[in-house]
Each structure stands twice: as C-alpha cells, then as structure tokens.
Amino acid sequence: MAIPLIRTAARLGLCVVTAIAVCPLVPASAAAGGSADLVVPRDHPTIQAAVDAAAPGDRISVRPGVYREQVVIGKSLSITGSGDGKTTIQAPQTLTPGEDGANSIVEIHNGAKVSLSKLAVSGPGSGTCDSGALGTGIRVLGGASLDLGHAAVTHITDTPAAPCFRSAHGLLIGDLPTGTGSATIHDTKITGYQGAGVVVLNEGSTATIERSTVTGHPTLSTDGIEFVAGAVGRVVKSTISGNECREPDPGCGTDFFNEFQHAGIVGDAPGTVVEHNRIVGNQVGIYVAGTGLTIGGNDLRKNSYVGMALQDGSFTLRKDRISGGVHGVAVIASAVDTDAVLDGVKITQTSGAPVQTFECCGFTATATVKP
C-alpha cells in the first residue's frame, strides 16, 4: 500500500504522520527594556553578523540587495527586509550542514521565536543529488517558531534541479524521531521547490498557512503541503497548484494501493483544518487519512486523478466545489472501514464517477451524499 504520508517519510529518510497559540515574537520585557534596531548593511555587513550581534528581542532591518549567505538564528528576533522583490537571502556557493545534518539557507532553532517579513529566501543550491544537496529553504526545529509574512521562498532546488533524496523543501518544520517546530505562514509565495512546498513533522509540531501561494516545480514531481507523523495544521484561503508526477516516475499512478500520487495537501492528524482554499492542477487535490479533520468550502479544479482522496477513517465534507479529473471524491478503505459524508458538495465535469469507492483487504468504503 502506498500513500503520500509514508512516501514523505521515506523521502526524508525518517521512520514513521489544535489551534495554534500565537505567541508574541518580541517578549514584552525586551520591548520595555528598549530593544535595539540594527540595520544591514549600515551597522553590520551581513544578516548573520547582525544576528550574532543582536540581543533577544532586537529588530533587524535589511536594506535592498542580494545577501549571499546562510543565516542561522538561535534567539528571538524580527528581521524585516525592504520587500520580497528587493531583499533576498540567496543560497551561497558552499552550504554548511545545520543541526539536522542537512543544508538550509535559513535555520531557526534553540526555541527561538522569529519573525521574517518582506524578503525572499532563494536558491538554487550549487550542490547535486550526490554532493552538497540543498535540503530546505527555511528550516525550523528545536522547539523554535516562525512567523513568515509578505515574503517569498523560491527556487529551492539543486543544480541541476532533480528528484534528490531528502531534498529540497521550501520549508521544513519539526523533526523526527523527536523534536518539534511551529510556523505561521501568511501572505507568502512558495514556488519552484524540488521536494515539497511545506513539510510539518512530528506530533507537537504545528503550522498555519493562510492567504499564501504554494506552486510546484514545472518539471519535477512535487507535493504541496504535508502534515506528517501526527503534525497538525490549518490551511485556509490559500492557493495550492502544480503538484504532479512530472519527470519519469515509475512508482506513480492511479492505483491507491500500489502506486504513489502527488497531492496539493496531505494530512492525517485530528484537528487539521483545510478550508476555503483554491486547489488547482495537482494529481490529487487533498489527500487525507484518519478521523477528526475539518474540510470545507474548498474550490478544487482540474486535479487530474481526483479532487479529494479520503482514506482509512471517517470524514465529513461541507460545501466543497470540485470540477474536472477522473473522480471528484475517492473513498478508500485499506486498513479500517471508511465512511464519508458529502454535505452540500458540488461535483462536476469528471470523466469517471463523481464519487468512487476503493476497497482492499476485507475493509469497506461507503459514501453518503447529502444535497
């Protein structure tokens, strides 16, 4: 049986898939004590030099320019650029591995609460699948949290771009087998990644993604947003597109039990919310497993295999709109009896049955459609 959650863990080289309390990014005590304002390059020539010199709670402003460096942050700070088209943190020629042993352009760790805004984080990396591969654009681990807003994460690939093992995700949040991270991503563009746009790992890790755009690589197989190994998240009012099998991929196909499918959004933890998104041009728009997820009000179009795949659990969909593809909704039973209620879901222009059940291994799949 092959489902994206297992595939993701294998690609990361890992063993295996709530509402987020938004904490102040600058502690009140620091603000009361008079946090400093540092300007790059006026006060320090690089962003990393400013981070090293800053005290927790300080603010760093970055003037327009391309800053070819890795940035490692282990203290609570805010870093503000001059706009994602003006201020760019660019992958340097040689990358140094971070705490997880992989290469990231920006790493946030040590429980730091960090705000990044009005800037771009960009590859490509100069490594290859065999040596020096770019792991992630932004890495959040060690209990750290990130607020990323009005920003861009782009061209997160190796040179040349290729389907490399453990490479290269736009953002990677949390860790396995232990470790957590959290993020709020808003008003941000995540494009041109080589692996997945956003991956959130491990029970206790969380992410909220809102009013953002996540777009797959034009020539590589990608996934959009993945909540893995019990990670929980919210995806709302965002656009997720272009996550498909692209280069020759012999493991990819329409058989939910024996082949892989690339998806816009993947999740399996109770409490995950997927609402009011536009999900277009993926192989599977939304692929979820388990019970206790909230799904509704999404607009899914031209997802080539199926708009939504619901596997091994109990599901209720409310007022989603699905058009195109082979099936609108697939209900899949492979490990437990599975049931789905479609409440006010509109499905049009599919080439096959609007709602299709798939059963394996003695388990049953049922769908109830309500007007």
Structure description:
This protein is mostly beta strands and 371 residues long. It has helices at 4-12, 28-32, 47-53, and strands at residues 37-40, 59-62, 65-68, 71-73, 77-80, 87-90, 104-108, 113-117, 120-122, 136-140, 145-149, 152-154, 169-173, 182-186, 189-193, 196-201, 206-210, 213-216, 223-228, 232-236, 239-241, 263-267, 273-275, 278-280, 284-289, 294-296, 299-301, 306-311, 314-318, 321-323, 327-333, 338-343, 346-348, 355-359, 365-370. It has a single domain, classed as Pectate Lyase C-like (3 Solenoid). The chain is built from 3 helices and 35 strands. Strand 1 (37-40), helix 3 (47-53) and strand 2 form a beta-alpha-beta unit. The longest helix is centred in the first third of the chain and has 9 residues, at 4-12.
Strand order of the largest sheet: 1-2-5-8-11-14-17-20-23-26-29-32-35
Count structural domains.
1
Q: How large is the count of helical segments?
A: 3
User: Beta-strand level of the residues, as a percent range?
Assistant: 35-45%
Task: Determine the mean pLDDT.
Answer: 90
Terminal CA distance:
33 Å
The count of β-strands is 35
CATH topology: Pectate Lyase C-like
